[in-house]
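the three lines:
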Amino acid sequence: MWQPLLLIILISPVQAQAAPKAAQSTCIRCHTDLGNPFDAPVKASAQDIHFQNGLSCNSCHGGDPTRDKPEEAMNPAKGFVRQPARKQVVTLCASCHSNPDYMRKYNPQARVDQYSEYLTSVHGKKLQTGDPNVAICIDCHGHHGILAAKNPNSSVYAPNVAATCGRCHSDPQRMKSYGIPTDQQELYTKSVHGEALMKNRDLAAPTCNSCHGNHGATPPGVDSVANVCGQCHVMQWDLFNQSPHRKAFEDRQLKGCVTCHQNHEVVQPSDAMLGAEDSATCPICHEKGSAGYAAAQEMKSAIVGLQGRLNSSSQLLEGAQRAGMEVSRPIYQLAEGRDRLVLARVQIHRFNPAMLKKTIMEGDSIAGASEQSGMQALADLAYRRKGLAVSAVILLCMIGLLLLKIRRLKSS
Amino acid sequence: MIAAEPQTSRRNVLNYLLGTGAMATLAAILYPVIKFMIPPRIVESSASSVVAAKVTEIKPNAGKIFKFGSKPGILIQTPAGEYRAFSAVCTHLDCTVQYRTDEKLIWCACHNGRYDLTGKNISGPPPRPLESFTVNVRGDEIVVTRG
Amino acid sequence: MMARLLKWGDWLEERLGWRAAQELIEHKEVPVHRHTIWYYFGGMTLFLFAIQVCTGIMLLLYYRPSAETAFESVQFIMTEVQFGWLIRSIHSWAANLMIGAAFVHMFSALFLRSFRRPRELTWVTGAFLLFLSLCFGFSGYLLPWNKLAFFATKVGTDIAGVVPLVGPFMLRFLRGGDEVTGATLTRFFGFHVAILPAIATVFLSVHLYLVQKHGMSSPPFVDPDKAPKMKFIPDFLMRDLVGWLAAVTVLAVLAAIFPWELGEKADPFAPAPAGIKPEWYFVYMFQTLKYIPSKIFGMDGEILGIMSFGLLGLLLVITPFISSEPRRGRRGLLPIVGILVLVYIIVLSALAYRT
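prediction for all of em together
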């Protein structure tokens, strides 16, 4: 009775989950049937965001997707363009993406200024002069498998951006005629930001477009780099702007932040950068005997001194802890001392030793209190050992007396 | 009889010493046992519940950092007068957050992250809200409990 | 004074009949020969067990058996409770000393052939007590809920799960689920403070009763009628006391100079730290499993290894029934097997700790 029903279910063709238009599109049908390599665009477009929103091959390539015969489907008279020229690609994408009325249908919050930004960029300007080498929309976003920037598989997903830019900018052959370095990607990958973003997946960390812009990609100007860094590193930026370095840098056309910390290879700063040693950063500008030189020395010794005191307290506490004593409160308080050290290293950016004093003193008193707690814990430990000695003496005496008694009993 | 006397007195001394030794040993064992059974000064571990502050210590639109287990916590009193407590460990890179009376929110100085007064991350790098704790007022003490 | 004590004694005798026990103890004798020293180890194991019961009960006043609170409660004991560090360290160290003493007691009874007729059941109950002490050790080890304990338990119960037929059931029964979780902790706590003590009480009572009933056994080379004897009270007992006081001294030194570590709180989602090893009394089995090839004659190596240990355990229990009387002049197989097992345990343990 149920057999016919089962038969019907088994032989009915299963509907594909593709968008209805795509299933009817002869482009998709033929290119799939033709196999490798003609099916490559179809395969790539499986997750494409345009296809998922109901667009299809003809939306960009033109032609007639209802005709079976190639010469009718791929008919230039019907607007078919096999591979648009590079300048044309940009205007083609812009024809939708710069149209607010059109974009509103799909995403009312979508930006529509990519094209106008692109025209201000180095890439856009060079494209206008006829340079075929510079990046256009599809170079970064892909052409058939375009994914949203939020999609982790997208070439413009934050951790993937450096590799995407690096495809051209790390190629010495390609960049030969432009006279700019090709080591940015390598340097960035080694940097704190590169590690944070690409290894630790901290999406707050900056990548190429964070400082250079997305579509209006241009190296930041001398006066604007610090502003960019200051979006996250607010305290350092504030202090730097109040410091004498701000005007001094501007006068010498030096970029804030980047001059000492580099731009692409921003590594974890260390105390070694501060001070008057040959390997430090300050003496690059400040000569021996100058006020800046002396300030650098003063700040360095203040910071190193506090760190030393914190370290020795920490060692004392760790020793007590290893010996089994309870020192979790002093260890917690020592963490507050380390906070002061971090704060002092930020306050350096005011380049005024007097400003550090209060912080260093607070840190010192915390280190001192922790050291005292550590000494107290060691004193408790000594008390325990004394208690052990007393008990051991009592027990050993008892054992001795018992042995005497045993000997006595044996002889009697 | 006379020859036995030194033996007897030595035996008595030994027995006396044994008795005293036994008492001392017993005391040395019983002393820690009894002290152990007497409840300590702090009756419960402070890893799950702690007195963060006294009611008089904290005013509306103010915050205080306190020790909760081995990590810092932040107790705030909103401008409306409600007490709230969160973990003070920033969810970005573990810096200690602070209360901003000017902006009336919780701020992290390290990378300019901001949390609103429900602990939700609203701006900057922090990827998650701050862990929130339960606050109860017991007399004049503000008690913060985890979970 | 003495008269009053005697009157109380009579009162109790009429109700409890305790004087029979007093008679027994007063007449109890211990054979004296060159191996008498091994006789002390049974009492030592019992003494250390008593210490475990007392310190364990004291720890019960403060310990909290749930995944959220166990570690903190042990930390509380170590830091806030007066002499908590002492009681806890003694409990942890005495556990190891007790199991060590139990092994010595077992091997000495083996080599001195104390299991001969009519003492077979004494041996059998003793073997079960040894297994029980290992169970006590395994269940107690998890209770502080630190990283090492968590992973040692995971590995140990994984191995239990490999046994054919009953393995998967045993694994779920032990863990209280499929994984090691807070449920495992609560369950192990139940084993450690209720179920195992109840079973141990039964076996221990039988074991001690049988020892008193049959008296102390003499080794084969000693003629029980001709050999010199020592009275249990006061001579043997005084020497016992010396040993017990020495044990207390050792425990005090260990607790004060080598306090038992707290470790880090267990995190079920963190990966296992390198170099996980079970406690020393399991380590030779663990090391053996590491050396066994994965396939032996087509069968799974790990399963074969575990089954072999099971078989050895079974052989241990039935030793009295499978070892024959030594013929005149010939020592027999037993000492050789016994020494081989002992050497194996020592060598494998040493290998485990060298890496």
